[in-house]
Amino acid sequence: MSCNCNCCCDEEETVVAKVGQPAPAFTMKTTADLEKLSSTASLSDYEGKWLVLFFWPLDFTFVCPTEITALSDRQKEFAELGAEILGVSTDSVYSHRAWIKTPRDQHGLGNVNFPLASDNTHTVSADYGVLIEDQGIALRGLFIIDPKGILQYAVINNLNIGRSVDETLRVLEALQTGGLCPADWKPGMKTL
Asked: What residues are labeled active site?
């Protein structure tokens, strides 16, 4: 994206995701077609749906598979709430495929109930503010985007801390109430 400041600079403007603003657009290759690896995912594909977009640092590591498999095991709960899940790292779709084809008991993922996307250009990770540039990997970012493409929730953890599926579901349901949800609100409780 070029600078629009009408000055003489040739600097590039960095898009950084901000809650309450339109989510940065993206298009990435995914594992949706695990054999051909020819599928892509774009933000526009999720128009009219809730999207849980999450980033992890590297395939074949230790904390990452616990998060991906936990989300995969509970994907139906997200689907019941009208939400889809898309996972992203800076690894290639070929690495993702190898990790999916490796059984869980051998430190792989096994079957995953949502696509994994490749941000090998690092553009999407940078746009969402999770790129560690000098390492070429992403922090553990999780974003909830509403059906109109507005970023409603963002949380970023450092590399060694996994995220909570329960908390992600709780926040998604709170957002869907459209109301004011007090501290420790849980589904079924009254809003303010």
From this structure: 64
